[in-house]
Design goal:
Layout: E1 3-6, E2 8-11, E3 14-22, H1 39-68, H2 70-73, H3 75-84, H4 86-96, H5 102-119, H6 123-127, H7 129-143, E4 160-164, H8 169-174, E5 180-185, H9 193-201, E6 205-207, H10 212-215, E7 221-225, E8 230-233, H11 237-258, E9 274-279, H12 285-290, E10 296-299, H13 314-327, E11 332-336, H14 362-368, H15 370-383, E12 388-393, H16 399-419, E13 429-433, H17 436-440, H18 442-445, E14 451-454, H19 456-464, H20 482-497, E15 501-504, H21 512-520, E16 525-529, H22 533-540, H23 545-556, H24 561-578
Parallel strand pairs: 3-4, 4-5, 5-6, 9-10, 9-16, 10-11, 11-12, 12-13, 13-14, 14-15, 15-16
Antiparallel strand pairs: 1-8, 2-6, 3-7, 7-8
Helix pairs in contact: 1-3, 1-4, 1-7, 3-7, 4-5, 5-7, 13-15, 15-16, 21-22, 21-23, 21-24, 23-24
């Protein structure tokens, strides 16, 4: 009998295929004592497991390099070096000779090492905890004779749906679109890293399923509906037929929406709404340009660092930025500086923190690490000669942060001039409004910047005190909460009063009802996922801004998010009905 698991819609699309269950977690290790005469055999076992793990990592590294490039695959070099560490091997051998079986000895030592590294005062050591965990899992899997679940084990054209608890950097690097057609995770929300990644890759996804990994076995036939947020396990013939019909309807819908690519985003009362695309990976740029987007409203740069062992140099960054800029010709490309931390897993010596969203992240990290920040800024100034580039700073809460960044930007321009390197020194500098603090002092911040971009993913989180990556709190993550709407309205009003462009680049802009609300609040620039550009364009072309404004003002006075949603939905439905 079919079983349907409900989660959170993360990336649209309906796919049917076998589940590939990936349990990437430290397995339970039985307590097994050994006699003195067994010690040398157990030492031999651990060395054999180390050799197998290194061989496997080398294989995985080669595959990841072919798929993602040498920089991204370097994470596996770090893991190989951990296994080859003389101190680690010596410690494991010592514990074995104290009467522990190889798997138990290795488990004990790795727990010690992970705890020691996590408590270290050195950020570089704390950053290695994730790699230690991956090594811990991989070697124990071999010692315990468990199946190897690397995603790359799937045969070419397997058309499998990846089911896992969450995606780590090392797993993300291995994702192969030739083998995986959809993603389902226990963890995550619509604005978490895995959801944004899935939309960027064009993979249907459902997140926040909570117990998918305990309810599904590898090989189970499943239907993943990324728009409905459901995962049906072992469907019958009738359910498969219904899914095929829904998929066909979606394809027809996509064909119709594709016809809007070259249409203008103008409302029924003649107001132009600028629609730009969010870009997460340089390889997405050409597809985003074909979507009908009028430039890039948010290019995330975390892809350059997440899951890597070292930070990218200036030339590598320059090449990545240039690729996106050239794909859009003369259209604006807004590039956000590193927003590392929070749900973007740390790398390159950045610390793991118990409360990362309130910790050392984004602009705070960049200003405290000027060498890293200036490398990025120089690359951006060099890339800016190839098009209309604007630089955007994340998580700004004070004018001091903007001024410090501007000072470093001026230093970078002077350094490039001294090198004789072609660059632009006049790149517009803007900020993201992502906290209640920034929204409340938007009038003051407007004096120091060229534009605002409202990052609703974090703004909702910080306003409502709801961790946007916590699947258990997903129902409380409500972007249409009146408090959020009022902060957006304030930022828009303050920005407009100062003559600034005000854009919304969070996932909120990609949802039709929420896009309607944003336009009603006075927003005239939206940046959405590339696959959402035609959908939002259709919404824009079917509304009146004056009516949307009146409805949005009612929503601002609602007592709850539910009431605000009802008001907005009624307004949007009325607009659609008026079109006949």
């Amino acid at each position: 009998m079919p079983v349907t698991l409900s989660g959170i819609p993360a990336s649209p699309g309906i796919v049917v295929g076998p589940a590939h269950l990936l349990r990437w977690e430290v397995p339970e290790v039985p307590a097994r004592a050994i006699g003195p005469h067994e010690a040398e055999a157990e030492v031999a076992r651990i060395h054999d497991a180390f050799a197998q793990a290194i061989g496997r990592l080398q294989e995985v590294r080669e595959r990841a390099e072919r798929q993602a490039g040498p920089a991204e695959s370097a994470i596996f070099d770090v893991q190989i070096s951990i296994i080859e560490d003389v101190e680690l091997r010596s410690r494991v051998e010592s514990v074995i000779r104290q009467g522990f079986a190889a798997e138990r000895a290795f488990d004990v030592v790795m727990i010690e090492w992970r705890e020691h590294f996590a408590r270290s005062v050195h950020a570089m050591m704390r950053e290695r905890v994730g790699d230690l965990t991956d090594v811990h899992i991989r070697v124990l899997t071999i010692l315990l004779g468990l199946g190897d679940h690397d995603p790359v084990d799937l045969p070419e054209g397997a058309n499998a749906i990846l089911v896992t608890h969450d995606l780590t950097p090392s797993l993300t690097v291995q994702l192969d679109r030739g083998r995986i057609i959809g993603i389902a995770t226990d963890a995550g929300t619509r604005t978490s890293h895995v959801a944004i990644l899935a939309r960027s890759l064009g993979l249907p996804a459902v997140v926040g399923l909570l117990e998918a990994t305990t309810r599904i076995e590898s090989g189970d036939q499943v239907i993943l509906d990324g728009a409905a947020g459901t995962l049906m396990v072992r469907p019958n013939a009738a359910e498969l037929a219904a899914a095929a019909a829904r998929a066909q309807n979606e394809k027809r819908e996509q064909v119709e929406l594709a016809r809007l690519a070259n249409a203008e985003a103008i409302t029924l009362d003649g107001v132009h709404i600028t629609l730009r695309a969010n870009v997460d990976l340089p390889d997405e740029a050409e597809a985003a340009a074909r979507s009908g987007a009028e430039g890039v409203g948010l290019m995330r740069t975390e892809f350059l660092v997440v899951g890597r062992a070292t930070m990218p140099d200036e030339d590598e960054q320059y090449d990545a930025y240039r690729k996106v800029i050239e794909a859009f010709g003369s259209k604006p490309v807004v590039i956000r500086t590193f927003d590392i931390g929070g749900d973007k897993l740390p790398v390159g010596g950045f610390p793991h923190e118990p409360n990362p969203f309130l910790g050392w992240r984004a602009i705070r990290m960049c200003l405290d690490q000027p060498a890293i920040f200036k490398t990025q800024l120089r690359a951006l100034l060099r890339a800016a000669v190839h098009g209309d580039v604007r630089i955007m700073l994340p998580l700004i809460v004070s004018s001091d942060e903007v001024r410090q960044a501007r000072f470093l930007l001026a230093e970078c321009a002077a350094e490039l001039a001294a090198r004789g390197e072609p660059h632009r020194a006049d790149v517009p500098l803007g900020i993201m409004i992502e906290t209640p603090a920034a929204a409340m002092i938007a009038d003051l911040l407007a004096k120091d910047v060229a534009f605002f971009s409202i990052g609703t993913n974090d703004l909702v989180q910080y306003t409502l005190a709801v961790d946007r990556g916590n699947a258990s709190l997903a129902s409380r993550y409500t972007p249409l909460h009146p408090a959020v709407l009022r902060l957006i309205a304030r930022a828009q009003q303050m920005g407009a009063a100062a003559g600034l462009e005000v854009n919304v680049c969070g996932e909120m802009a990609s949802e039709p009802l929420m896009a309607y609300a944003l336009i009603g609040l006075g927003i005239r620039q939206l940046s959405v996922s590339a696959i959402s550009v035609p959908l939002v364009k259709r919404i824009v072309r079917g509304l009146h801004t004056e009516r949307a404004g009146a409805v949005a003002r009612q929503a601002l006075e609602a007592n709850t998010a539910e009431m605000a949603e009802q008001v907005l939905r009624a307004g949007l439905d009325a607009d659609r009905g008026a079109q006949g």
